Amino acid sequence: MAFAGLYNYWIVVVLMMIGFYVVIAQGNLVKKIFGLNIFQVSVFVLYITMSKVDGGTAPILDDRYQVYSNPLPHVLILTAIVVGVATMALGLALVVRIREAYGTIEEEEIEQQEGELP
Amino acid sequence: MAVIGLAYIFLRNLFAVVMLSGMFSLTAAVLYVVMDAVDVAFTEAAVGAGIATVLGLATLGLIGVVNEKPSKRSFLGPFLVVLVTGAVLINATLDMPDFGDPNAPIHHHVAPRYIEDSGREIGVPNIVTSILASYRGYDTLGEVTVIFTAACGVLVLLGRTRRRKPHGQETGDRETASGDGEAAK
Which single residue of A18, A56, B20, B123 could bond A67 by disulfide (Cβ 3.0 to 4.6 Å)? Predict the structure, then answer.
């Protein structure tokens, strides 16, 4: 019972940690941003998991249904998805600028070039 | 999904990473449909799988780098941090209510009021729409502000590029892509 009830949360944690690992361990900036994307999606899945009700249906009013899943997390995540993509666009734009300034998108090479400056 | 996520770590080809992120979002959208969140699934499929992939491809086109260089750094430190954080989070989930439990605290605050009264008060059958546009309209206003700020940021960052290098005609692609982001919302 405990396993079946908490399975979704564990998937969320695993996904979140994969995203976290990509962000902190990978040196490539584009890959880091997509790692952040995985992290975001894991949070979305967490919210949608919480909004699910057993035997419920999608929150669209109809006389045939009495039980609906919780609509509030859906609204919050709807907002969060769009904000997440806006953030990603900004991050990728920064990567493009970094590429123009340093000629690379590898973190180590950027640090090397910074070290050569006084 | 976890498999797709794991493949992220090992893939060195950035083009494949971008494509994989599209697949990842689409899988997430299917998962949302299974969990009765159809509106969220729409948005994820359109914005997450569509626009994010376009943005990623546009970036790759701009920077012209397709392959990642192998990292010389040790992976042990980050791996330990991730392991410890994951263990703490798993420990935290043990206190969470079971999946689909109708008695979970989240279903007993404002949600019943939305479900019972929004049809009469707002007159829109889709509860998600009525909350988004009416009860939590300020959230949506804030969201639009964030998108506007992000679009301004992208334009400032990439607009300077074009002034310095008149040949960078690809910057136009990026601008239309972020414009699509606004239109989708």
Answer: A56
